[in-house]
Amino acid sequence: MSIFIGRTQKIRMKIRIGIQFHSPTPEVIENLARLARIVTAITIPIGLSDGSIPEDNLIAEFFNIEPEDVRNMEKFNKQYSELLFIKIKDIKLSNKVNDVMEALVQMFDLRELWKTIDLSNLPNSADYADLESLRSIDVSVIEYLKIADIQNLSRKDSLSDSEVKTLKSSITDLAKAVESLYVNPIKQMETLAKLKPLLSLGKVLDFYTIHGKLNYNQMMPKDKEFLKADFEALKKLKEITLPPSLDVVSRFVSSRFMHHQTNKTYTAGFVNGFKDVDTLKTDRSDAWIQDVVKYDLSTLKEFDRLGIEVVELDGHWRSVSTYSTYKSLKLVSDLCKLIARGSPSHDEIVEVMHGVSLCSTAPIDIPLNEKINKIAGNARLLYKKVSAIHRMQQSMTVVKSQLLDRLSTSASKADLKEMEKLMVKLETDARIVKEGRSFYAYDMYTSDSDKIIDFKEEKPYHIGTFNCIRDLVIEFEKVAAAARTSVIIDQIQKNQTIMDDVKNTYEASSNTVKTLELIKLVFRNIKTYVDPKLTNLTDLQNVSKPFGEAVAALVLSDVVSRRSLDFEEFVNKGFLLENQVDADNGDKFKEEFRAEWGDFQTTAQDINSMFVGITSWIETIKGPNVSLSLEEAGLLYENLTNFVDVDLMTHHRLNAIDRAENEQSTPVDKKLLGELRKALIDLSRLDLKFARFQNSTIQMPETLDLLLDILYVEGIESFTARWRPLKVLDLTFLFGFLIMFYLSLWSVPFSYRNMKKSYKRDIQRRSEKKLDGEEPEDNDFSEFEYDLEEIMVFYDEEMPESVHEDHEQITVRERAKEPEPLEDEAKDFSPDLLELYALYGHDKDAEEPSEPSSTDEYFGTSSREPHSQSWFHLISQDSLGPPPSIISTYSLHD
Q1: Structure confidence by residue, pLDDT tens digits, 87-146
Q2: Section 763-774 average pLDDT
Q3: Residue of 270, 460, 338 whose CA lies nearest to 84
Q4: What angle do CA 674, 680, 682 make, to 5 degrees?
């Protein structure tokens, strides 16, 4: 940032520029933004399905409004508004007693404002007299300060010997200039702060000077009739039901032309709100996303339909969302609130006017009123300038005590960064001190201050009058509300544009109800057709918000950094408007303007501080950091400074611009007002509230680890059946599994040899029993067939003759299905394994058999089912071992 301070009164502020507007967005930012959108999109169907995400909240976050506004909009009834318009148009007012109506309104405002004023802490005479010394401050010493040179050197990564010498010399000169401005401004700041109640006191005196002699008895009889008739006409508005959604409509409209700050609980990854829903189609097909998120994202295609509907809803409002429409809606909304307070009776109106008249005994003192307004205005401006001098001194104290001695060719980047931040603050404060009128022009009337600082003692009649009005026990509020209603209706009836704006907006509201129904229908489709495999990713709901907020901070910083020139113009035009208003002699207008305009110096300083932080962050994303991998992206969030929120005070400053535009006696450039209004509305569309992202950015490295853990480590089966890389834990498990498998195969021959011996003995026993005429007791062979001779021949075993002779009698009577044929590749397997297949290749029971006591239990079975799962199933066809057609029929229990 640089500053040009010379002899000219026009000083332009240069905001530090980080990234040019048309430069491409760094790849790492684009990738993180895509991933944040995808993560949010995955969590939405899960939340809709289990009920953890309310539909109204989702819509509200898309459009930066409140969920309650969505629910109220669904109840919108166009007929209410149409009836209201008809009633307003039909009301006939005399327009003969508008001054009385205005007087009732302002005397009520006087009553409410006086309740807030405390005059007990005004400064004493000695402290007040000391303010005269401020007029001797000479600010010409800061005309040639080289703040820009200090800032340029502070932005370098390292300094040469000559640069260090230049930097130290410039800082020394700057420190001397700042110290010469004033010795100790703290005491004067305290005195000026004590004069703040004079601002409100001046406004009370304004009300009393204009309308303090309100007297019902002095009104003409005809005017009394007009007054009664006008209040009676307002009662017709009570006959209609007021539209409850009017405020909601106003918020919808304002949300389309300025950013509303809302908490995104479920859609933090949608940085741009509803607009990001429409980009999911391209995000799903992005190669980087497909490589990172190894799941089938085509199940998110229902968001395509959602994108169409939310864009259509935005279109309904975008066409009517203008500042003019917003003002019209606000005026009608204020009218409805006033109507709701009820209508006073004629007796109540007369009672209020009599009460005010009886209290108003103090004389009207116009010179005193003007002096208090002038002193109050000068005190506010002097406080602003003296505070700026104090902050400049504080900044230079830090520079001299903490940074100056550390400046060398090996100065750390952190020290240079701190130097730059202090220069940003000092530049803004120097501008405040220099611009506007000189200190000598601010006359505080220190030689005639008794009636000011001793107002309570010097003006007891005024104190008594204002206390009397404050303590009136009458229906003052109801009467004032009705009078204000009359004033607004008169304004609406004279400006047809107001009613046209409201009607067009209500037409858009009617279309909104239909679109909201369609959006909720899409939500039902999203949760109905959600892929069951998405439920494995429920843990994403825990990281979606912090991850989305951290990414949002980066994305928004990139966006805002490209608007530095626009902010620079806005700040310069804002200060220029302040100078033009301060140059005017109309103290009343200046105070009214300042009340709406607010502290622009603080806004300018916040803007500068914001740009120092975000541009420094964005500048780190260059070189190798432009395309960091996801695992390395956490490096971008290390050592971040605290974020700064910027409040442009859009509503209030637009009102101040309108007030300046309507003030005929004020020499304010009308073209400047139009340009400033346009710039303010344009910049208000940006999200400038970065502080809410602070915690999420600090936690981003840990959040990123959790996200990677969910996407990679948990081993969730991917939608696309793509294998993830094997981790060390996976390899260890596989190695152990193969060892177990080898040992199992190695033990099979030994088990079979023992089994075969038992089998042969059992056959011999059965043969002997047959020869003796005994029938075997076990009939469990009824479901199997075994060709024993064929098996024994295959193994070159000699069978007893009794077995050959009686083989047909041993064969079971009821045949089961044939054993599964062996594949060709089975021929090379050992005979032991083949016979094991012949014996156990049939369907078996899934239950674990008990320890056998005879060969009958080895061969006997009763209608058993095959094993649905065996440990051999864990081996793929690419692994070591026999083909699945053989292995899958075995079980460890068998």
Answers
A1: 888 888 998 999 999 999 999 999 999 999 999 999 999 999 999 999 988 888 877 777
A2: 54
A3: 338
A4: 105
Average pLDDT, the chain: 79
What is the separation of C-alpha 235 from the centre of its chain, rounded to a whole number of angstroms?
44
Looking at the domain assignment, is residue 30 inside a domain?
no
Residue type, 687: D
Q: Is the pLDDT of residue 791 over 50?
A: no
814 belongs to a structural domain: yes
Report the greatest alpha carbon distance in the chain.
146
The pLDDT value recorded for residue 743 is 66
**Of the residues 413, 444, 474, which one is the last residue of a structural domain?**
474
Using CA atoms, how far apart are residues 223 and 216, in angstroms rounded to an integer?
A: 10
Distance of CA 679 to the CA centre of its chain: 23
Q: Contact, 780 vs 748, CB < 8 A?
A: no
Give 3's strand partners: 13
Of the candidates 213, 219, 208, 10, which has an alpha carbon nearest to the alpha carbon of residue 109? 208
| Contact predicate 852/778, CB 8 Å | no
Sign, CA torsion 599/603/604/606: positive
Question: What total of structural domains would you count in the chain?
Answer: 2
Residue type for 60, please? A
Domain boundary among 413, 447, 474: 474
Q: Which among 346, 356, 96 is positioned nearest to 222, based on CA atoms?
A: 96
Which tens digit of pLDDT belongs to each residue from 579-614? 888 876 567 788 788 889 998 988 998 998 899 888
Average pLDDT for 765-769: 57
CA distance 615 to 742: 63
Q: Is 14 helix (H, G, I), strand (E, B) or coil?
A: strand
Higher-pLDDT residue of 384 and 549 is 549
CA dist., res. 4 & res. 630, Å (int): 44
Cβ–Cβ < 8 Å for 697, 640: yes
Q: What CA–CA distance (Å, rounded) separates 520 from 516? A: 6
Beta-bridge partners for 14:
2
Q: What is the pLDDT of residues 661-703, one digit of tens each?
A: 888 766 788 899 999 999 999 999 999 999 999 999 999 999 9
Of 248-252, 256-260, 307-311, 735-739, the poorest mean pLDDT is in: 735-739
Q: For residue 237, which of 109, 348, 339 has the smallest C-alpha distance?
A: 339
Report pLDDT digits (tens) over 132-148: 999 988 888 877 777 88
In a domain, 663, yes or no: no
Domain extent at residue 860: 733-887
Residue 344 lies in a domain: no
Which of 278-282, 471-475, 548-552 ranks highest by mean pLDDT?
548-552
φ, ψ for residue 2, nearest 5 deg: -135, 160
**Cβ-defined contacts of 514-521 (< 8 Å, 24+):** 515/309, 515/312, 515/313, 515/316, 516/59, 516/70, 516/73, 516/74, 516/313, 518/309, 519/59, 519/306, 519/309, 519/310, 519/313, 520/55
3-state secondary structure of 502: helix
What own/partner pairs with CB < 8 Å and gap ≥ 24 does 512-517 have?
A: 512/73, 512/76, 512/252, 512/313, 512/316, 512/317, 513/73, 513/74, 513/76, 515/309, 515/312, 515/313, 515/316, 516/59, 516/70, 516/73, 516/74, 516/313
> What number is the average pLDDT over the span 862-884?
38
Assign 3-state DSSP to the chain and report helix, strand, coil percentages, each to 5. 70, 0, 30
Whole-angstrom CA distances from 870 to 160, 832, 893 are 75, 20, 9
